[in-house]
Amino acid sequence: MTTNPTTRRMALSALAALVLCSALPAQAIGRLGDVQVIDRDSSEVLPVYRHRGEYWVAGRPGARYAVSIQNKRRDRLLGVVSVDGINAITGETAAFNQTGYVLGAWQAYRVTGWRKSDEQVAAFHFTASPASYAERTGRPDQMGVIGVALFREKAALPPPAVSSPWSWRDRSQRNRFESGEAPMAKSGSNAPAASLAEADATGAPPETASMRAAPAPRLGTGHGAREDDHIAHTNFERRSQRPDEVVRIRYDSRENLIAMGVIPVRPLPPRPNPFPLGNDPRYAPDPS
User: Fold this and answer.
1) How many CB atoms lie within 10 A of CB 260?
2) How much helix, strand and coil, in percent to the nearest 5, is found in the chain?
3) Does residue 18 belong to any structural domain of this protein?
4) Which of 45, 177, 221, 226 is deepest in the core (most CB within 10 A)?
5) Element (DSSP H or E) covering residue 255
6) Per the confidence metrics, is the pTM higher than 0.70?
7) H helices within 65-193, ranges in order?
8) Rounded mean pLDDT of 43-72?
9) What is the pLDDT of residue 92?
10) Which region, left, alpha or beta, applies to residue 154 given φ > 0 means left and ψ of -120 to 50 means alpha?
């Protein structure tokens, strides 16, 4: 069997492109839902670096950010969001059984801050650890980690024709949800109380002294300015008391991630010398 040279070149080009793409950092992780971290000031989706079995993103000190979750399923999904070991809605030390955001089929939502009410959040922003919400509330032990515990919904019997799973505050709120603009509702469950950070840490590779070394203060998440962010409420019965998936993303400054070896740095090639011998031959000789 012969191969056309053009076809061979196209195949090699495709292979090269595939290898190049596989070497680039990912931007979203998750099986049931896509989870991304977005720099809201630059609109950049932060690249995710895999290092020693963990996922990392580099945050810019001072930048506001969001945790984006998109449901990849046809049925509803509940996401319990933890930042620095703290539930992003209630401010409690995070556990699987706590309140989360309910996403409709294929729906996406950006968690942009610590929820203060049904109408407002205090914006997430990257900051030095002493100024973080976790440290200011006396809980600095889980600094630098974002967790999303995803739960599938228990299949329900067909409801009576007069029932509705939603309780709407007003007509405009319902219209915003149906158009994909409204945030998801909050939901609780009777799942067992287990710390999200503790559960995520099970089986994780231990940190080495070199990973703990960092040239700059660690990043945490601050309690920023109030912003409008409206939600509705709904009922959600979890299929299981344990999450169907837990997404864990660690973060720190780019400078610290380079120092820890999370972000590889290519060595610069040696600088060429235009006059390596310093002599000045009269004429250029012929090559041998």
Assistant:
1) 20
2) 15, 35, 50
3) no
4) 221
5) helix 254-259
6) no
7) 133-136, 171-178
8) 96
9) 96
10) beta
Residue with tokens 């998440």: 221
φ and ψ of 38, to 5 deg: -120, 125
pLDDT at residue 276, rounded to an integer: 77
For residues 224 and 221, what is the distance between their CA atoms, to the nearest angstrom?
9
Cross-strand partners of 122: 114, 226
- Number of folded domains that form the chain: 1
User: In 3-state terms, what secondary structure has residue 191?
Assistant: coil
**What does 12-81 look like in DSSP terms, one character per residue?**
HHHHHHHHHHHHSPBS-B-SSEEEEEEETTTTEEPPBEEETTEEEEEEPTT-BEEEEEEE-SSS-EEEEE
Q: Which two tokens stand for residue 183?
A: 């945030």
Cβ-based neighbours of 55, under 8 Å, separated by 6 or more:
29, 48, 49, 248, 249, 250
The boundaries of the domain holding residue 134 are: 25-155+163-259
Does the residue 87 lie in any domain? yes
Q: If pLDDT is split at 50, 70 and 90, which confidence band does 157 have?
A: low
What is the model's pLDDT at position 264? 87
d(CA 211, CA 18): 31
Is 159 exposed, middle or buried (CB count within 10 Å of its CB: 0-12, 13-18, 19+)?
exposed
CB-based contact 57:47 (threshold 8 Å):
yes
Local structure of 125: helix, strand or coil: strand
pLDDT digits (tens, 9 = 90+) for 42-55: 999 999 999 999 99
215 lies in some domain: yes
Number of Cβ within a 10 Å radius of residue 37: 23
Residue 12 lies in a domain: no
